[in-house]
Specification:
Distance between the termini: 16 Å
Order of helices and strands: EEEHHHHEEHEHEHEEHEEE
CATH class of one domain: Alpha Beta
Strand content: 15-25%
Number of strands: 12
Helix content: 25-40%
CATH superfamily of one domain: Vaccinia Virus protein VP39
CATH topology of one domain: Rossmann fold
Number of helices: 8
Structural class: alpha/beta
Largest sheet: 8 strands, mixed
Radius of gyration: 18 Å
Length: about 300
């Protein structure tokens, strides 16, 4: 898994608020109201053996996983009394998080969901970065987290999270745990968060941080993100933080009718499209392109 220092922005000659097209992608529509300064995100490498994975529900082993994989009706009933987590470090650097959210709102009025903005205000990003970069943890920039990987800039975390359209009954799968910060943000919106990471040392660190901060409902797994997490599905939403030339069929098969996948799709060496893929109630596929992006490639099974 590798990272690249890439920039995602309006392509030349495109005014904010205009509908425009990526070269080579025909009539794909993009929302030009969004201005991104830069993206540096996790690559999601994949192993070729789908069975080579380990899982560890932070809430307590296989029984917790089985309970989380129950019926939607049961989940909805249990969520009526659910309240978002209160991380251990929530009181630390609150003013800086508030300023970070103000920057997000300036960059894009499209990030408007009150629950998402509240999650960004409450999730302690400084906990998930390394000690040497904590002083700049709330700047809108990616930061290194070791092993050649980074934590994504706050704006991208907020924007992609909003595209998922989560509520407390939603079950969401993240492909690419990285630092654990995105999973923490998701955990403020729903208690049903599953996250996968291919680099085991990263996963172990993220898992420990999530538990220490009190995000004990997040389920983690080391394995091949291309294959998803079938025994925990179906999912209401899936977020993928690496680019693929196509939507991996196992992820589509694990999406519940009415659910959506947010994924960068396109040539892994060039500009991709951030796409929201929705599964209709009839099982049909509906896609819309949000904006041009450049993400690191998914590797392994997707390359075969």
């Amino acid at each position: 898994m590798a990272t690249i220092n890439s920039r995602t922005s309006h392509l030349p000659g495109r005014a904010p608020g205009r509908t425009s097209h990526l070269p080579g992608h025909g009539a794909a529509r993009m929302c030009g109201a969004v201005l991104l300064w830069g993206i540096l995100v996790f690559g999601c490498a994949s192993e070729t053996d789908p069975s080579a994975s380990t899982e560890n529900p932070a809430a307590g082993g296989s029984d917790a996983l089985a309970a989380a994989s129950g019926s939607s009706a049961g989940a909805a009933a249990s969520d009526t009394s659910w309240t978002p987590p209160r991380p251990r470090s929530i009181r630390e650097r609150r003013d800086e998080r508030e300023h970070m959210v103000e920057e997000i709102l300036v960059k894009s009025p499209m990030v408007t969901d009150a629950a998402v903005l509240r999650a960004m205000r409450d999730a302690p990003r400084h906990v998930f970065v390394h000690e040497q970069t904590r002083r700049i943890a709330y700047e809108d920039t990616p930061l290194p987290i070791g092993l050649g990987q980074t934590i994504s800039q706050p704006y991208i975390v907020a924007f992609m999270t909003e595209l998922l359209e989560l509520d407390p009954t939603s079950k969401v799968l993240e492909i690419g745990t990285g630092s654990g910060y995105q999973a923490a943000v998701l955990a403020h919106l729903t208690p049903h968060v599953y996250t996968m990471e291919i680099i085991e040392p990263l996963l172990e660190r993220a898992r420990a941080l999530l538990i220490d901060e009190g995000y004990d409902t997040v389920r983690t797994r080391h394995g091949d993100g291309y294959y998803g997490w079938s025994e925990a599905g179906p999912f209401d939403a899936i977020i993928v933080t690496c680019a693929a030339g196509h939507l991996p069929p196992p992820l589509w098969s694990q999406l519940r009718p009415g659910g959506r996948i947010v994924i960068p799709i396109g040539e892994v060496t060039g500009v991709q499209r951030l796409v929201v893929v929705t599964r209709t109630a009839e099982g049909e596929r509906s896609s819309r392109t949000v904006l041009p992006v450049r993400f690191v490639p998914m590797t392994g099974r997707v390359e075969q």
